[in-house]
Amino acid sequence: xxxxxxxxxxxxxxAALPRLHPTERRLADFVLSFPGELASYTATELARLANVSNxxxxxxxxxxxxxxxxxxxxxxxxxxxxxxALYRVAASGAEAGDLVVRHAEQGAANxxxxxxxxxxxxxxxxxxxxxxxxxxxxxxxxxxxAFAQYLAWQILQVVERVSLIPGPGETLGEHLAGIGAExxxxxxxLRRRPAKLEAILDQIVRSGAxxxxxxxxxxxxxxxxxxxxRCQTAAPGPLxxxxxxxxxxxxxxxRVIERAGQDGRRRLTAIESLHDALxxx
Length: 281
Hints:
By secondary structure, the protein is an alpha/beta fold.
């Protein structure tokens, strides 16, 4: 069975519930709430956390379709990398004392590693493309949607030809049909990525457009795109940190505005004049 067709760990547990012994059911209830613990603990440690015996753990993993505990743990470990918050919640609870400091330190480290892996030449080449192509298309789903909207909003100050897609009620196909080789597409592909994102990216590649692909560090460099900007997203809790993604968007938008030249300044002046005339801000 291919990894794509393999039932998830949680699906296996839910399917087995009706045939479990009461103590196995107690273990099942525990792992349904804290599935990531299998990736972190030995069978003995899991048994102690769930208040069951080692033998119960062994019977349980076999009943849900694994040859042994290690196979189940490897499956959970792989699924944990997809980004599901449920897999990253700890049963024991994190110590809260220095939580703010740990979040700040990890966010700073993520930002430093992400921007440190880039060069100004690389960022400026992308900024120049955004300023000179026929049209800029920006695509984002789930967590990436917020960053797509932020980047589109910021560069719109100097780039008129920006399309944030898809809009409410629109299909992506309605926009992909209009993308051509003279365009640039910024695609946000952060965990957890939609299942169809790879097919969408393939379609954009076939259009011949230049592509900037913004992802987390879990993806290997993608040679199909012009720019693959990989952001570090480690965090001390169940949610990935997107500090580095925002930092990247801010840097890119700043360079777009700074490199926009006289045309950009004229547009900025016109926008500010309209803000005053309409008393908008």
